[in-house]
Write a structure and sequence with these properties.
With 237 residues, the protein is an alpha+beta fold. The protein folds into two domains: 13-115 and 204-231, no CATH class; 123-200, no CATH class. It has eight helices and eleven strands. It has helices spanning 31-43, 46-60, 72-87, 139-144, 153-159, 177-185, 189-200, 227-231; strands at residues 13-16, 23-26, 90-96, 103-109, 114-116, 123-125, 131-134, 160-164, 169-171, 204-212, 219-225. The strands form four sheets. Strands 6-7-8-9 form a four-stranded antiparallel sheet. The chain has a three-stranded antiparallel sheet with strand order 5-10-11. Strands 1-2 form a two-stranded antiparallel ribbon. Helix 1 (31-43) runs antiparallel to helix 2 (46-60) and helix 5 crosses helix 6. The chain is globular. The relative contact order is 0.16. The model has no long low-confidence stretch (mean pLDDT 89).
Length: 237
């Protein structure tokens, strides 16, 4: 009778998410998960890439990661920490020179990527007495709504937690989506400007990359922002 192959244990790591403050225990991804991410990236299918990454993140946290509660910036940050623990921080990728259009290979360290939460605001006063408390978008919201559109009533409805005034708190669950949309569409431009402060302040992964073109020697900077710019840095980047 064959002896079973020896068990290879994986280290248990801990990551504190910068926006929510949640602490996650995780292990580095394994070869089968690397292969799954590579196949998803090669397919160029955005939905397949996101679903594969969600599956890997869930496995690596033993199912503890709650995708409907973790803000998108936290999710992206954790993905990068997982990638660093599993394959190292250094990545290389193609980027076009802004001057001569030559595509060159740029390199960066994922350890330098930060989460910008300097403008984060979740409680917005739209009049002297009426306010809205929002929640930060999750990956599920990002898949369903355009979170960059401050005047999208669908987006605003999905992210509203409560509305309040001096006398009462109005729970979203007590109203239909149509009733809320009618209320939102009845706001004026100045009130939407106040709401846009929340939208503009949603925390994002960000990193400014400075590089010199190998063809024309032009030095330039590019700022990478948002989840989509960092999900591409899988195991082979």
């Amino acid at each position: 009778m064959k002896k079973p192959l020896p068990t290879v244990s994986a280290p248990t790591l801990v990551c504190t998410l910068p926006v929510s403050g949640v602490k996650l225990k995780y292990r580095p991804f394994v070869i089968r998960e690397q292969k799954a991410m590579l196949l998803a990236q090669e397919s160029k299918d955005a939905d397949a890439i996101i679903e594969t990454i969600k599956s890997v993140l869930s496995s690596c946290t033993h199912g503890e990661l709650q995708f409907d509660k973790i803000p998108t910036a936290d999710l992206g940050y954790f993905f990068l920490q997982l990638r660093i623990a599993s394959a190292g921080p250094e990545v290389k990728f193609g980027i076009e020179c802004e001057k001569c259009s030559t595509e060159i290979v740029a390199s960066m360290s994922l350890s330098d990527v930060t989460v910008d939460k300097s403008k984060m605001i979740t409680d917005v006063k739209i009049t002297d007495t009426v306010g809205i408390r929002f929640r930060l978008p999750t990956i599920e919201d990002a898949l369903e709504n355009d979170v960059a559109d401050a005047k999208s009533t669908k987006m605003l409805y999905s992210l509203i937690d409560i509305v309040y005034d001096e006398d009462s708190v109005y729970q979203k669950s007590d109203y239909t989506e149509e009733e809320f949309n009618d209320w939102i569409e009845g706001l004026n431009d100045q009130q939407l400007v106040e709401i846009k402060k929340f939208v503009d302040g949603i925390p994002e992964l960000t990193h400014t990359l400075t590089f010199t073109c190998s063809s024309c020697s032009h030095t330039q900077s590019r700022t990478l922002e948002g989840l989509h710019n960092f999900f591409r840095f899988g195991p082979d980047a």
